[in-house]
Design a protein that fits this description.
In chain A, about 65% of the residues lie in helices and about 10% in strands. Chain A has about 525 residues and is an alpha/beta fold. Chain A has two domains: about 5-300, ABC transporter transmembrane region fold (Up-down Bundle), CATH 1.20.1560; about 315-520, Rossmann fold (3-Layer(aba) Sandwich), CATH 3.40.50. Chain B is α/β, with parallel strands linked by helices and about 550 residues long. Classes of the chains: A alpha/beta (about 525), B alpha/beta (about 550).
């Protein structure tokens, strides 16, 4: 909650109050004018009609600018907060594909509706309504009390009712939407296989069914908001009639000037106007709450504690090690090995057995059983990412230039160094054919690279770091044999004095290598 | 920025009935609004000027209650109608996008980038919704309410009618002027905003990579900086749009104030009655309000129209791949191609030299990444048409050009294994049964054995992110699917990458056997096992050089 949001609620309230004032003062102006008084009597009313009219728009403008600005600030803050939380917690057990993160960003946006579409309009409606009721009370305490009670009941009751009617449907529609997102991402990746293996029709039917189910739930949602709007219209009519009859009664008792009958009858029309947008906004609550729950679950991931020390020497000693996910050890034989600089270790084994998890455990990013010592010190006390480089198969290729992608490994790299690394991974030719060379944008919105080209960018990104320890996970995946041979020779030559672990199912020629086959 | 994309008309057909209902609702609302103003004015005049008691006003009060009740019911009905319209259009657009992605998925990905389709089909369509269920109904209201309310005012008080007639065109006029003035600035800002928000998603996607490279904490500040820039850019756009609606609101308010003062002055010299004055006062805002409301919804509509144009860009993508009508012949003896060239936007033109692959032989395609392996496969699958060169199918009694063959049927005759296999969501046993047929359980068991998968795999269920199933297992499953489909042409792209040697060998041997039975087996691979068992190795690297001078222009 911020001052900006409260201030914009206040501005919104003032803007609606001006609308109430506009109708009230023009009703009085016309009623008064019909009694044909001297023009001077009307001057004040004429001025206030103009004032209310002009200031309503200005306050509204202020409210909109201020509230959107505050919302966007909150959004950035929440994103940064989430990034910080997730940064400490990655790697997460669940596979975190691109739809996962797109979902987070969507949730962050949905949450912003809580203030923008619910709290601010509600507070504004409350402020303007109460201001209008004060005016009525001033003219007729009886009408003020009656209309005030009706107003407060509507202000609280209508949104509550709408929320109740639509909460379930709103939650379910959020689930359906998520389902649709996942079905569509399945289609956009698997269109060819769907066609070849003939399941595109059944996929399409399924999508249609989900869409229809979603529409049905949404019509319940709208029934909720429709009933809310309808109740507000009825409440307004009640208030108009109360205003009129009470005014007639007051005038007959001589408690009120007859000229005020118009004002008392027309004012309620505007007082209840602020409530009219609330029902459709309150149907959003279920969605917002689902999004909020998702985000909170993410922000409270248990962080992994990383050490700060840097060892003097860089040999790695593994003793009965198995990586763990969610407190459970992986299902392979525990691994024991001593890896010294100049004597690389090659780990092979079936896919899915846990080779990459082992790599993550060695640099301290996931828990494990057994002991892992680097330079004689347990890796949990060490700042592994400072002196060890892990290159994973799944390393992300960012949507920026080739140069920027490689510079993630080492921001201070010189152009000569970059050039020599590009030669090692044989990307120099590929790059010379691209329109903007090393500055060509790649990734989702740029040039599409082949699997082998991406793999070589990952390799280059790792090599530029020049750390004492290297762990390479399937470094030559998707490369043709001759090329893999050539590049691996150059890479191993470059890393001949480092502590090196290579994970690969290929039979690589590595000088001086230890081999371990991971078995289930 | 446009208010309306004419292409949207095409999709209103299915909801024409509902749109007529929406028009009817707008007309009824107009009628009720006028009646309400007249009744209230009548009540006030009788109570104030004629001092009538509540008892004599009873009929009019009941009429007022009736009007309000009708409005309440109309509110429920029109909400439901509008939702129906948008749900129909949404389902229809999604279904069209689906068909388009099945048919032209490769071109869509090449032209708009991977991921664009799912973005448009989800977020794009969501952005389009307010356009249909708020903006379009409002457009009808903006047409009818001012017209009929305006006529009512003219009938009651001619002078007020004249004032309205002269002031009302100011709103659309200023709206258009402001729109024209801000259009290019808005478009530029929208684009910047899109880039910035993509940047943030990209950072989240790369979080683990950044962490492993010890760069993730430095990026935290960047998220903040980019978020702030996003805010500043967005606020520039919003301020323009809020300012324009402020300008329009001020015009409307000043016009109403002008009316109110003129009525007041004429009331003073007795040239009109209080009844007329009140009716005009209550109705005048109703003339300006719907038109202003349309401008206020302009923001939502601009987003919707932008989203719509992205959807239509994909739907209208008409890469008319030449396609024939001939059913692929059953006994294909060989697939041969001349030197071929394929042009891609933003990429070097791929050249692939002439070769032939024959049935009865295990053919392996090797070559470094970027030498055109995937392009060759796409060409053979008839997903891309070469700009020069021909692919020929040789069968027992002659030959066909691949372009003469019906593409659907051609694809259905090939068993294909991709690098990143996809499956329909649901039980694995179910989706395999649909391919193998019910009585072919032995075939499935055999294929599982060959690929080194356990039977328990069948009981697993695939979801969006394939929880609990590794990429290696998915690749094995894709091989299983290809084997059990019993098609006489198998095409595989790196099928054994990241599998252990035992399975690799078993799969390679089986592929060899299958080829020797007279089938066509084409495998892209750098696996030594596969290459050593191959009857025919095509090394794309040796026979081909990318032409460095021929870079497709951007």
């Amino acid at each position: 909650m911020s001052k900006r949001l409260l201030l914009s609620s206040l501005l919104g309230g003032l803007s609606l109050t001006m609308a109430v004032g506009l109708l009230g003062s023009s009703a009085w102006l016309i009623a008064m004018a019909s009694t044909q008084p001297p023009i001077l009597v009307l001057e004040v009313a004429i001025v206030s009609v103009r004032f209310f009219g002009l200031s309503r728009g200005v306050f509204r403008y202020g409210e909109r600018v201020m509230s959107h600005d505050a919302i966007l600030r909150n959004q950035t803050q929440l994103q940064t907060h989430l990034y910080r939380g997730l940064e400490r917690a990655v790697p997460l057990k669940e596979r975190t594909g691109s739809s996962f993160f797109a979902g987070i960003i969507r949730d962050v946006e949905i949450i912003q509706d809580r203030w923008l579409r619910i709290y601010i309009p509600w507070i504004s409606a409350a402020i303007s309504g109460l201001a209008g009721i004060c005016a009525i009370y001033f003219l007729s305490p009886r009408a003020g009390t009656l209309i005030g009670t009706l107003f407060i009941a509507s202000l609280i009751g209508i949104p509550m009712l709408t929320r109740r009617l639509s909460l379930h449907a709103s939650n379910v529609s959020y689930v359906d939407e998520t389902e649709i997102v996942s079905q569509i991402s399945n289609i956009s990746r698997g269109f060819l296989e769907a066609k070849i293996y003939g399941y595109s029709v059944s996929l399409q039917q399924k999508l249609r069914q989900t869409d229809i189910a979603l529409a049905r739930k949404e019509s319940i949602l709208d029934l909720g908001s429709g009933i809310g709007v309808a109740l507000n219209i009825l409440a307004t009519s009640g208030a108009v009639i109360i205003g009129l009859t009470t005014a007639i009664h007051n005038v007959s008792q001589g408690e009120l000037g007859a000229v005020n009958i118009a004002t008392l009858t027309l004012l309620p029309l505007m007082i209840f106007d602020g409530i009219s947008t609330l029902p459709s906004a309150f149907t959003l609550i279920g969605r917002i709450e689902s999004a909020q729950k998702n985000i909170e679950g993410l922000a409270h991931q248990t962080p992994i504690s990383l050490g700060t020390k840097i060892p003097e020497t860089f040999e790695i000693s593994l003793n009965n090690v198995r990586a763990q996910w969610g407190g459970e050890s992986l299902n392979h034989q525990p691994i024991t090995a001593l890896i010294e600089p100049g004597t690389p270790l090659l780990i092979s084994g079936e896919s899915g057995i846990g080779k990459s998890s082992l790599a993550l455990a060695i640099i301290g990013l996931i828990p494990y059983e057994g002991t892992i010592l680097i330079g004689g010190e347990s890796n949990s006390h060490l700042a592994c990412s400072e002196f060890a480089t892990l290159s994973l198969q799944s390393d992300h290729i960012f949507n920026s230039s080739i140069k920027e992608n490689i510079r993630i490994g080492n921001p201070n790299i010189t152009d000569q160094e970059l050039e020599s690394i590009l030669k090692i991974v044989e990307l120099d030719h590929v790059i010379s054919h691209l329109p903007s060379g090393v500055d060509s944008v790649i990734g989702t919105y740029g040039t599409q690279l082949s699997g082998g080209e991406k793999q070589r960018i990952r390799l280059a990104r790792a090599l530029v770091r020049n750390t004492p320890i290297y762990i390479l996970d399937e470094p030559f995946e998707f490369l043709e044999m001759d090329q893999a041979q050539r590049i691996s020779k150059k890479v191993f030559e470059r890393l001949s004095k480092n502590t090196l672990i290579v994970i690969s199912h290929d039979q690589l020629t590595i000088p001086n290598v230890l081999r371990i086959n991971l078995r289930g | 920025m446009k208010f309306f994309d004419p292409r949207l008309f095409r999709f209103s057909r299915s909801s024409r009935g509902f749109i007529s209902l929406s028009i009817l609702a707008a007309l009824t609302l107009t009628f009720l609004t006028i009646l309400q103003a007249m009744t209230i004015a009548d009540l006030v005049v009788r109570a104030f000027q004629k001092r009538e008691a509540v008892e004599t006003l009873k009929t009019s009060i009941l009429l007022l209650i009736f009007i309000f009740t009708a409005r309440a019911l109309l509110a429920i009905a029109s909400d439901l109608i509008n939702r129906r319209i948008s749900a129909r259009i949404r389902a229809e657009l999604r279904s069209l996008l689906f068909t388009q992605s099945i048919n032209k998925g490769a071109e869509i990905n090449a032209q708009f980038g991977a991921g664009k389709l799912s973005l448009v089909a989800t977020r794009g369509i969501t952005q389009l919704e307010p356009y249909f269920n708020r903006f379009i109904p409002q457009l009808f209201i903006a047409l009818f309410v001012p017209l009929f309310v305006g006529i009512t005012i003219v009938l009651h008080d001619f002078l007020s009618g004249v004032i309205i007639l002269f002031t009302i065109p100011l709103i659309p006029l200023f709206g258009i002027l402001i729109g024209k003035y801000t259009e290019s600035a808005m478009m530029k800002k929208w684009r910047t905003m899109g880039l910035l928000s993509n940047f943030i998603v990209d950072l989240f996607n790369g979080l683990l990579t950044l962490k492993v490279f010890n760069r993730s904490q430095k990026q935290e500040e960047k998220i903040h900086i980019v978020g702030e820039r996003y805010r500043v850019e967005t606020m520039k756009v919003l301020r323009i749009s809020f300012l324009s609606s402020l300008a329009l609101e001020l015009i409307a308010t000043l016009s109403v104030a002008l009316l109110a003062v003129s009525i007041g002055l004429r009331l003073v010299n007795g040239s009109i009655s209080l009844n007329v004055g009140l009716i005009v006062l209550l109705l005048a805002p109703e003339v300006y309000w719907p038109i202003r409301q349309v401008s206020a919804l302009f923001h939502a509509s601009a987003e919707g129209v932008t989203a719509a144009s992205e959807i239509f860009d994909i739907l209208d993508l008409n890469v008319n791949l030449p396609q024939g009508s001939i059913t692929p012949p059953p006994n294909i003896k060989a697939l041969a191609w001349t030197d071929i060239e394929i042009e891609y936007p933003n990429r070097i033109t791929q050249r692939i030299s002439a070769h032939e692959i024959r049935s009865g032989e295990l053919t392996v395609i090797a070559g470094p990444s970027g030498s055109g392996k995937t392009t060759l496969i796409n060409t053979l699958l008839s997903l891309v048409t070469p700009s020069t060169g021909v692919i020929t199918l040789h069968h027992e009694n002659g030959h066909f050009n691949l372009q003469e063959i019906n593409r659907e049927q051609w694809l259905r005759s090939i068993a294909w294994v991709s690098q990143d296999p996809q499956f329909p969501p649901g039980l694995i046993s179910q989706s395999l049964r649909e391919i193998a047929g019910d009585n072919k359980q032995e075939i499935v068991a055999e294929a599982l054995r060959i690929t080194g998968l356990h039977d328990s795999m069948l009981e697993k269920s695939l979801t969006d992110n394939n929880n609990g199933i590794s990429l290696g297992q998915l690749r094995r499953l894709a091989i299983v699917r290809a084997l059990i489909s019993q098609r006489s042409i198998i095409v595989m792209d790196e099928p054994t990458a990241s599998l252990d040697q035992e399975s690799e060998l078993s799969i390679a041997k089986h592929l060899q056997d299958f080829a020797h039975k007279g089938n066509i087996v084409l495998v892209v691979s750098h696996s030594p096992e596969l290459i050593s068992l191959a009857d025919h190795v095509i090394d794309l690297n040796k026979n081909l050089r990318n032409n460095p001078n021929k870079v497709a222009s951007q």
